Amino acid sequence: xxxxxxxxxxxxxxxxxxxxxxxxxxxxxxxxxxxxxxxxxxxxxxxxxxxxxxxxxxxxxxxxxxxxxxxxxxxxxxxxxxxxxxxxxxxxxxxxxxxxxxxxxxxxxxxxxxxxxxxxxxxxxxxxxxxxxxxxxxxxxxxxxxxxxxxxxxxxxxxxxxxxxxxxxxxxxxxxxxxxxxxxxxxxxxxxxxxxxxxxxxxxxxxxxxxxxxxxxxxxxxxxxxxxx
Length: 229
Known about the structure:
- By secondary structure, this protein is α/β, with parallel strands linked by helices.
- It has two domains: 5-130, 3-Layer(aba) Sandwich (Rossmann fold); 135-226, Orthogonal Bundle (Arc Repressor Mutant, subunit A).
- The chain contains eight helices and twelve strands.
- The strands form three sheets. A five-stranded parallel β-sheet has the order 2-1-3-4-5, with helices on both faces. A four-stranded antiparallel β-sheet has the order 6-7-8-9, with helices on one face.
- Helix 1 packs across helix 5 (110-131), helix 6 crosses helix 8 (195-209) and helix 7 packs across helix 8.
């Protein structure tokens, strides 16, 4: 079975070779890019399964590359591991907030690199599998494969964020989720990250769902839950 493809991005040739050698030795197909611009060109011809991304790049830096990837429909679900020098905590936090999945500080152990790559790919595979589940309750159907919701057979037009909120809480009916848990779980592209905006999104979602909006229950002082059947 073909192994996953990894895109390694770093302007230091010795780092690139270290990444390439150790990942290839473990069966991965490794593509290389020495700049942010080269990385952007690379994903247009071949979407990788994971990106190992240095933050300190000439021209377009790693944080900007991460942001561009996470706003690209073909790349939004591709996990990113950022590489950063020790002491650059602010850049690590920014990278994670932009959607990176993990980070490794330089200098790094090749064994740690391979271990992190495996772990992130495993988590992403499980997440993708979970997202392939569809939910049916009474006359409400949430089809995650087509990213559509139907109420009594009629398609309900939801935004990306509205769908993500509904699917997230509906997967575990009866569970109470705080607003911040909802924010962390969905990270929608059109989503302003504040607790107040969750309330606004839920209000709009309930209105669009009509009578099925009652399935989304408010837990005062905590957050929201999807009603159990």
